């Protein structure tokens, strides 16, 4: 069962763009009053659950954008707000010399950079290319080599904090690349995050993110197991969560992202596990961690592939009507 779910999850990851939830259309023009005279356009590729609010925060800080997403509907509200929308990553590179990519998988990143209509087809010398996707560190290193051949700079800068932090501009960025370019990257990343940390050479940002998400997955499983056990022993889930969060078992999964429905508001467990970090993507990240650690591709199962990763609680509850 685990193996088959992993295979289905992997396939779902490749189709993630086509199924992800779109934020409700809003009048971006109303929230993005800016003086653009001193700021040159920034390219942004990938407007999913994370990329959409990240791009909006760049707008709020006065940066005009050159936008591309594989699904045109994702660009609609940006076009209506007056941003440039183009038809390929290559066109983004033609119009902007600073580009941020936010994509679901290594395959998506390779296509965006090296594909037939990729960034490298029209990238300008001296351009700064920042990839905030969570992908295999070895892919980041290979992309950096290809970018360097074109006279441009590549940095990996994956994020942590989830959709809520993306919306509020409080993401944590883990940055790998040439240290001399870090200040230029931080200028942009600081518009979208409250923590921008230099990790070392290209690939170290991905390494830090993979380690973080491995720990996050472990803590979510532990929180779900503890909550499930307590409920079966007759404890009220809100009371149990309160006790855990004032005791040594406290963690982000218990006090900020509790997996039990009814314990917290504003988290996926309060919304049928919709709108968060998909289990498919968490499984992908765990696969990256496992590949990096053991150079194998063992299957990883965590909850329900189409739900937020905190849905592991429901798996433990053995609720089949999901």
TrEMBL record:
It holds the Pfam family NAD_binding_2. It catalyses: 3-hydroxy-2-methylpropanoate + NAD(+) = 2-methyl-3-oxopropanoate + NADH + H(+). Residues 203-303 form the 3-hydroxyisobutyrate dehydrogenase-like NAD-binding domain. One of its GO terms (biological process) is L-valine catabolic process. NAD(+) binds at residues 40-68, 103-104, 108, 134, 284. It is an enzyme of class 1 (oxidoreductase). It is found in: Mitochondrion. Pathway: Amino-acid degradation; L-valine degradation. The active site is at 209. GO terms for molecular function: 3-hydroxyisobutyrate dehydrogenase activity; NAD binding; NADP binding. InterPro entries: 3-OH-isobutyrate_DH-rel_CS, 6-PGluconate_DH-like_C_sf, 6PGD_dom2, 6PGDH_NADP-bd, HIBADH, HIBADH-like_NADP-bd, HIBADH-related, NAD(P)-bd_dom_sf. Its EC number is 1.1.1.31. Residues 42-200 form the 6-phosphogluconate dehydrogenase NADP-binding domain. Keywords: Branched-chain amino acid catabolism, Mitochondrion, NAD, Oxidoreductase, Transit peptide. One of its GO terms (cellular component) is mitochondrion. Belongs to the HIBADH-related family. 3-hydroxyisobutyrate dehydrogenase subfamily. This is 3-hydroxyisobutyrate dehydrogenase. It comes from Myotis myotis.
């Amino acid at each position: 069962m685990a193996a088959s779910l992993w295979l289905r999850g992997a396939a779902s990851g490749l189709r993630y763009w086509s199924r992800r939830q779109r934020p409700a259309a809003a009048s971006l023009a109303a929230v993005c009053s800016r003086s653009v005279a001193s700021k040159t356009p920034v390219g942004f590729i990938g407007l999913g659950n994370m990329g959409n609010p990240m791009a909006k925060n760049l707008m709020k800080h006065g940066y005009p954008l050159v936008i591309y997403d594989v699904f045109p509907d994702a660009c609609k509200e940006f076009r209506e707000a007056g941003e440039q929308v183009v038809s390929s990553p290559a066109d983004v590179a033609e119009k902007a010399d600073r580009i941020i990519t936010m994509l679901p998988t290594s395959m998506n990143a390779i296509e965006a950079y090296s594909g037939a209509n990729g960034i490298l087809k029209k990238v300008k010398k001296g351009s700064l290319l920042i990839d905030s996707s969570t992908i295999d560190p070895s892919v980041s290193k290979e992309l950096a080599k290809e970018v360097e051949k074109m006279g441009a700079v590549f940095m990996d800068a994956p994020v942590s904090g989830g959709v809520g932090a993306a919306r509020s501009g409080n993401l944590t960025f883990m940055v790998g690349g040439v240290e001399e370019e870090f200040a230029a990257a931080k200028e942009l990343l600081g518009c979208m995050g409250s923590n921008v940390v230099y990790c070392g050479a290209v690939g170290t940002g991905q390494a830090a993110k993979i380690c973080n998400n491995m720990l996050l997955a472990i803590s979510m499983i532990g929180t779900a197991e503890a909550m499930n056990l307590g409920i079966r022993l007759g404890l009220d889930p809100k009371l149990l969560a309160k006790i855990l969060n004032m005791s040594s078992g406290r963690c982000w999964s218990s006090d900020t992202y509790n997996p039990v429905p009814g314990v917290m508001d504003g988290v996926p467990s309060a919304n049928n596990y919709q709108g968060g970090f998909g289990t498919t993507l968490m499984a992908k990240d765990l696969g990256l961690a496992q590949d990096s650690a053991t150079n194998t591709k063992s299957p990883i199962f965590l909850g329900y592939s189409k739900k937020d990763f905190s849905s592991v609680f429901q798996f433990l509850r053995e609720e089949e009507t999901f």
